[in-house]
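Dataset card, provenance and construction

Sequences and ligand SMILES were collected as paired inputs. For each pair, a complete structure of the chain with the small molecule in place was predicted and serialized as structure tokens. The example below shows a pair involving adenosine-5'-triphosphate. Curators did not alter the output after generation; any descriptive sentences attached to a record were derived from the structure itself.
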Amino acid sequence: MAFFTAIANRKGGVGKSTITVMLAHALAVWGGKRVLILDLDSQCNTSLILLGGQGWNEARKAERSIADYFFDLFDGNNAKPKDYLVHGAGDVAGANGKAPTISLLPGSLLLEDVQGELYLRQAKQSTDPDIVASRVRGRIEMLLRKFEGSYDVVLLDCPPGLSFAALAALSIADRVVVPFRPDYVSELAVDRIALIIEDKRNQDDLDAVAIEDRRYVCLANYVRDNGRDRLLIEEIGLKHPVLETQLPMRDGIANAFDFIGGNRQTIEAKYGNAIDDLKKLYDEIAPLLADEDAKVAAQ
Ligand SMILES: Nc1ncnc2c1ncn2[C@@H]1O[C@H](COP(=O)(O)OP(=O)(O)OP(=O)(O)O)[C@@H](O)[C@H]1O
Ligand SMILES: [Mg+2]
């Protein structure tokens, strides 16, 4: 059974897609894991990082995208989830020089339309908006869970807002990684998403859940070596689980956003001056993404 890990924050531009891809590379190349990424963001950044513009267009033409998958299954087609995946995604090579096991359900610009369409269909069956919303989320959860077989880890790259797909991802995730920037706006965003993940109404109810029992873990990104950043991260750490690893602003991380066509490169070449950051992140996070107790607790 795959371990579902959502990478999410309501705030945009905090590094969700970047970190999703970094984790995929590290888990597949260093951990030998079979990794699947589900791109739940209609901006499709993860798909572009992993396939490049041309590869993503080819996937779209071949109708391999999350929107195709959702549309076909809503229509009752007997399509198999694996028919929508692209295998050997990314431009990194494993130790043997071959593609590591990274598969991708490519994102789609039409994902919002699909969710709207599903909402309208459910709205014909009930006039209660809460019931409709919960059914839509439930359908999407079911469709996402279908990818359980054949993979060790399923990474769900979430959009910045709270779409039905993002809510479904947060609901089925065994673990949620919440990247944040050390600034006040991010602190508020972390507080808010934590309530949703732990299904609590307010901070007092959340505080009643021991920090080590939370389903999510926060990851400071774009960290500068100054007292202000340290203070903010400490402050967030008083209320939320925060990884010891912190990602600074690095060219190696920024450059990894670009897909390099042609021959695959080593993970060391791909991440350049950020390779030690990635190693540290991997060492700390890998045990959390294979934690059977967390998996049982989330169900
Ligand atoms: N530690 C870092 N150092 C340098 N650049 C970074 C770092 N983390 C992310 N970036 C860059 O910041 C930009 C935003 O990152 P990314 O797209 O991963 O954020 P996101 O949270 O997924 O955004 P969105 O909410 O729009 O989906 C990208 O150009 C990425 O290369
Ligand atoms: Mg993103």
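Derived descriptions for this record:
DSSP finds 13 helices and six strands in the chain.
The mean pLDDT is 93.
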